[in-house]
Structure formats: C-alpha cells, structure tokens
Design a protein that fits this description.
8 strands; alpha/beta; 367 residues; binds zinc ion; single chain; 14 helices; Alkaline Phosphatase, subunit A
Length: 367
C-alpha cells in the first residue's frame, strides 16, 4: 500500500511539469499533523467557553479585575460584540453551534434546542448525522478533548462516542469515537482547569474544548449584576484567573506558544437571573477573543474581517442577512482552518473559513 503511494507520487513528480498533476496525499502518519503543515504552523486550538459571560463584565472589571481578558485584548484579536445563535440564548443549543458550525434552527440547523439533561444524541434529535469539529480533526488523526463543567455536556461525548460517532471518513481509520480525552464535572471549574493544563502539558490535544460553568451558575443565583463586588463579577474574575492560567501555560512553553491559538467566547450573556430571551441584547451579545500563534495583537476582529463580517451594533442579526456578525458558532470552522483542515461537513456558520485573525498578506509562494 505504502509503496503504491510512493510510486504514484514519483510518477506524479516526473510528470508534474508537463501535465500539471498533483501528488496524491498519502495517509497521515501517527504523530504528524495530518495537514502536513510546516513547523511553526498552528497545531493546537484551545476553545474556551465561559458560560454566561457578558462582555461588559470584562470592561467593568477593568484590567486590574480581569487581567487575562485584558491580556487577550492587548495581545490578541477580539470583539466584545459577537453574537449567539439567533433563536436561542441558552447553553446546549449554543455550544452545539460552536462545535458543529450550524445554527439551531433552519434547514442546516443542528436542531438541538433542548437544554436539560440529554436523553438523545444530537443526531437522534436532528434525524441525521450532525458532524462536528471533533469529526473533522479526529478523522485526520488529530487528538481531541472535552473538559466541561456541567453534566449535560455528556451530549457531546455521547453523540461522538464509539457507538454514535460516524465511521472515519478519511483513511486510515481512527475509529468512530471522535473524542480522545474527556472530563465532565458537576460545576467543578478547578477540575476543568486542571484537566486542561494536564492536556497542554502531556496529551497535547490538537483541539481542546473547555467549558467553565460558575459564571452562569452565579448569574442564576445572584443575578447578572455588574455592581462593584457583585457575586457575578467575582465569578467572572475567577473565570479570568482560569483563562490566565491557560495563557501562562501556553506562553511558558515555547513549542506550545509557537503552535497554539486560544479562542475564548461564550454561549450567552444574561440579565436579571436568566438569559432565555433571545431578543434581549444582554443575552445575545457575547465576546470573542483569539490569542496566540499568528494572531494580530490588539486588533479588532471586525476591522480585520471588514470584507466578510459586519459589526452588528446592537442588532440581533438573522442568519439570512447579507452582512453577518462574528458568532460563537464561528468557532468550529475557525479552529479547523487554523489547524489546516476543511470546514465541518454540513456547517453553514463560517463555512467559507474566511474569518481571519491577522491582516491577510499576499503569499510569496512560487518565487
Ligand atoms: Zn444558564
């Protein structure tokens, strides 16, 4: 098999100039980025969702109260005016957008609108297989992980396990279970952080999905109150500290620093003691931060992406609007693009993979 690939490659090389033929892509070797990227390219994407994070909590806390979020803004590309799903501003529907690149409703929708303890997989609800960022990465031999702070996040591990995950779409076969490492707790954010730091130090997953829950829990019990020293602001400060630990771990390891992008966003905001009303701007307005290898420093994501995205002001923008905002649902296809992989099959949010994190430079290839 291997010699066939090599033979085909040699044939192709010898004929390439005359015929313009492109070499067949050999199956990925273990331990090597399947995308065959050069050293220094992005090998790891850590996607952090801080549940119920209002962007104005970050600005209210300021640099002293939220040093990590402010470091993300100073050293990364960000917007404090990203959007949730159009129809839902609750946890599982929006996290499902983040990992599938689909809206909740509509023809392309993942349809997972439930937000309580899961009884069905995402595919059972949709009535068809819903591929995810985990599928695309794992099928190409990359390592994936989920560390989450609410028990209901088992919907992801159960939807993409060895029983319910799709057959590997890319040779060689990496199996149907798309998630290599998982830890799902009952609101134990320190456990989530520990698992994430362990993975960064040892397992080195290529895609890590991290979820911190306490901000949302505090909002529900004590309201999304931004008064000085409010319980919610204190919870946001704790999430900031956790994000800061992740940033320190990446920055302290040169190999990781050179090859990792951290994305931080949220599933929804909140007001009063809830966030269910998808028409309320306090619920649908969320931050989206990107930081790490190749990411512009101190850049506004809407300025970087003026050709493909539009700052929505205070509007709640439907999916059929010509000018789309940056959404939490952009995370899946952005992560895959950074890893050199194609968009999630069936996805529609950011499916062109045109969201950029730095000014686009003309390639000098071929010179
Ligand atoms: Zn909630």
């Amino acid at each position: 098999m291997r010699s066939n690939w090599m033979y085909a490659g040699l044939m192709c090389l010898s004929l390439a100039a005359a015929l313009g033929c492109s070499a067949p892509v050999a199956p990925a070797e273990t331990g090597k980025n399947a995308a065959g990227k050069a050293p220094g390219a992005v090998q790891h994407v850590v996607l952090v969702s801080v549940d119920g994070l209002r962007p104005d909590a970050v600005t209210t806390l300021g640099e002293v109260g939220a040093p990590a979020f402010h470091r993300l803004m100073k050293e990364g590309a960000f917007t404090l005016n990203a959007r949730t799903d159009f129809d839902f501003t609750v946890t599982l529907p929006n996290h499902t957008c983040m990992v599938t690149g689909r809206p909740v409703e509509g023809e392309a929708g993942h349809k997972y609108s439930e937000n309580s303890a899961p009884t069905q997989s995402i595919h059972d609800v949709k009535g068809a297989y819903v591929a995810s960022v985990f599928d695309v990465a794992h099928d190409r031999g990359l390592r994936t992980a989920i560390f989450a702070g609410k028990p209901k996040f088992v919907v992801y591990t159960m939807s993409y396990d060895s029983a319910r995950g799709a057959a590997d779409a890319e040779a060689p076969d990496h199996g149907k279970a798309k998630v290599d490492a998982e830890e799902i707790s009952n609101y134990n954010d320190p456990a989530t952080l520990s698992a994430t730091l362990r993975e960064l130090a040892g397992g080195r997953a290529n895609f890590v999905f991290v979820h911190f829950a306490e901000t949302d829990k505090t909002g529900h019990t004590d309201t999304w109150d931004l008064e000085k020293d409010s319980p919610y602001l204190k919870a946001v400060a704790k999430a900031d500290a956790a994000v800061g630990k992740i940033m320190e771990a990446i920055a302290a390891d040169q190999a990781l620093a050179d090859s990792t992008v951290l994305l931080v966003t949220s599933d929804h905001g909140g007001t009063g003691n809830n966030h269910k009303d998808a028409k309320d701007k306090l619920n649908y307005t969320i931050p989206f931060f990107a930081w790490g290898a190749g990411v512009a420093k101190g850049a506004d994501l809407y300025e970087l992406n003026a050709a493909s995205r539009k700052n929505p002001g205070e509007e709640r923008v439907p999916y059929d609007a010509a000018a789309q905002p940056i959404r939490n649902g952009d995370a899946a296809n952005l992560a895959l693009k950074l890893l050199g992989l194609p968009a999630v099959p069936g996805s529609t949010i950011g499916a062109k993979q045109d969201l950029v994190l730095a000014p686009v430079q003309e390639k000098q290839e071929g010179k």
